[in-house]
Amino acid sequence: MGLKLVRPGAAYAEQVMQYREEMLANNDSLDGCAGLEDVSSFSEWVDFENRLKKAYGEGYVPSEVFLAVREEDDRVVGIIDYRHPLTPFLLKYGGNVGYSIRPGERRKGYACEMLGLLLPVCREYGEEKILLTCDQDNEASRRTITKNGGVLENEVAAEASFSKCGVVQRYWITL
């Protein structure tokens, strides 16, 4: 498939904002996009530290945000976010990793490849295992997680504001 993970930079500013528009127009949640839905410009978005500290206060967790770029045409097909360490909320509902794939690029294996590329990054940060979560009815995300070694620990009830179906599945991937 040929993806690479790259840190967001000016060269991808236009594509990131197009990604945002496509996701919003499709009524998709921008999981793993570090609050992309809440900004109006790329420069505002990439100020992760300041913006997210203000938004989350004591609940703020540093994260590493990467664009999944298809090597053959340099197109941003996904965004993935590695959050560390886990807060009580992330431990219960959100996990270490969030990700999304732009609507026109789904069902091509990109989410699985993107997550696989992120696992060595997590190892570099000293993680021995990471937590990923998904809604109980999100078959695509469940397949992505299990193909990368995720093992279901349990399911937890979640508020409607966080989970569309009301049940979050919690998976651990041993690195």
Describe this protein's structure.
- The chain is α+β, with helices and mostly antiparallel strands.
- It has one domain (3-127): Gcn5-related N-acetyltransferase (GNAT) (Aminopeptidase), CATH 3.40.630.
- The chain has 6 helices and 7 strands; from the N terminus they run βαααββαβαβαββ.
- The protein has a 4-stranded antiparallel β-sheet, sandwiched between helices. A 3-stranded antiparallel β-sheet has the order 5-7-6, with helices on both faces.
- A hairpin with a 4-residue loop joins strand 2 (63-70) and strand 3.
- The protein starts with a strand and ends with a strand.
Which range does the strand content fall in? 25-35%
Tell me the CATH superfamily: Gcn5-related N-acetyltransferase (GNAT)
- Spatial arrangement of strands, main beta sheet: 1-2-3-4
The CATH first-level class comes to Alpha Beta
Specify Rg, calculated over alpha carbons: 15 Å
The arrangement of helices and strands along the chain is: EHHHEEHEHEHEE
- What fold name goes in the CATH topology slot? Aminopeptidase
Helix content: 25-40%
Number of distinct helices: 6
Largest sheet: 4 strands, antiparallel
Output the structural class.
alpha+beta
Mean pLDDT metric: 95
Tally of DSSP β-strands = 7
Shape: globular
Q: What separation lies between the terminal Cα atoms?
A: 23 Å
Number of domains: 1
Per CATH, which architecture? 3-Layer(aba) Sandwich
* Low-confidence regions: none
